[in-house]
Amino acid sequence: MNIILLSGGSGKRLWPLSNDIRSKQFIKLFKDSEGNYESMVQRVFRQISTVDKGANITIATSASQASAIMSQLGEKVSICTEPCRRDTFPAIALAATYLVDELKISRDECVVVCPVDPYVDDTYYETVAELEKQVNSGKANITLMGVEPTYPSDKYGYIIPETADRVSAVKEFKEKPDTAKAKEYLAQGAVWNAGVFAFKLSYLIDKAHEMIDFTDYRDLFEKYETLEKISFDYAVVEKEQSIQVLRYSGEWKDVGTWNMMAEVMADKTKGNVCLDDTCENTQVVNELDIPVLGMGLKDMVIAVSGDGILVSDKERSGYMKPYVEKISTEVHFVEKSWGTYTVIDAQPGSQTVKVKMTAGSSMTYHVHELRDEVWTIVAGQGRTIIDGMEQIVRPGDTVTIAAGCVHTILADTDMDIIEIQVGEEISIDDKREFPLPE
């Protein structure tokens, strides 16, 4: 089974734990069978691998999220990185050409496109496997998954099938309705549009060539910024005549808000949290080292991180996006392929960062032109390379890197480092990467 997982999102609805770099799918609020915390992307990868151990999984994502995916999944998954965000049709087209041109998967094979962030049980991915069989039967160009509704929701789009059969041709699509219209759709046997599409790779690539002038994956990648921003639904699905839907009736929850996340997160509290006995239906997540005490709280969600603090009634938490957009702060926590990066102090002309690196990892070999850096090794052992010269570093060592020096650090063990950045301009754009010297 070939699966493309769409990993995007702006990180506004689960603020302050999520942001433009760390979207909801990377927050570790779930637990695996051994009781270890895991994120949505780790949970989804585990579930797919349980249903189909041989599944080829590719994640289509933005460049800002690639490091977090590598950190959480390692080398177990291929990543198709978008140069910029252009909505779901360009993302799927790029990923499909990546599968064919870079991974050498046959155009005759089926691919299933899924969002990376629904909360589901394993039967969901068993149904995803059934989509492949439907595509290979040749009865339709596209097969969709439709979720059996549990209530007349105004939050989802609807698919109206022609029949009540488990697999049916699609009669029409409906946008997100008001509750009254949703009731009418349910009376017609409608299902929620889960954003899951299955088709032959050849079908999608031919469609892409009809709409975009390109030769292959690398050409499409170079032209990506010029592509029209358009969803896969609008560009392809709603114009396709040969299309069918497969019903799914198992567990399915969209955890796009704190109210929904609170229903499925593993524990009612995470981090240094104390709630008194009078608290009811309240979840608290604290990512800081300082304690959080809650007393007499009812129907509340509290989230604490270096980016901010949310204290909200659960129902109201679903309406926070426009307020979060008014809050302008720099991202204080980033998950990288080599570990984590946490800003602990920022002021004009300087920034102090706590770096945690995992054993065997390394930063890129890079240079900053506008700032100096000072690394103090707090724990662990590794090696720095500065302008081609390698040096072993241990706890207590301090390394000064002047602006213009090309540098990296390789962690031989898990490492904790305090990094002080000093310069008139401290910017994520002040970075150029080079090949590591041999």
Mean pLDDT: 92
Give the beta-strand count. 30
The total of helices stands at 10
> Mind telling me the C-alpha Rg?
24 Å
Distance between the termini: 39 Å
Tell me the structural class: alpha+beta
Question: How large is the share of residues in beta strands?
Answer: 35-45%
Shape by Cα distribution: globular
Strand arrangement, major sheet: 20-21-22-29-24-27
Main sheet properties: 6 strands, antiparallel
The parts where pLDDT drops under 50 for at least 5 residues are none
Residues in helix, %? 10-25%
Key features?
alpha+beta, 10 helices, 438 residues
What can you tell me about this protein's structure?
The protein has 438 residues and is an alpha+beta fold. The chain is 22% helix and 35% strand. The strands form eight sheets. It has a six-stranded antiparallel β-sheet. The chain has a five-stranded mixed β-barrel with strand order 8-11-9-10-12. Strand 9 and strand 10 form a beta hairpin. The chain is globular and about 70 Å long. The mean pLDDT is 92.
